[in-house]
Amino acid sequence: MKILVLGSGGRVLGVTALAGDLAAAREKAYAAVEEIAFEGRQFRRDIAVKGLSA
User: Of 44, 41, 20, nearest to 30 (Cα)?
Assistant: First the structure.
């Protein structure tokens, strides 16, 4: 299923996920991010890293 989202700049969207633990939720969220494509797409790769190392 494809969904069209239009934006004119700035932050376009946020992706979240729920799972039994932080590592699994992070994995699911980043898997969802990989399904999103648009010109100039950028995303942080450090989300939840601090929590996983605690």
Answer: 44
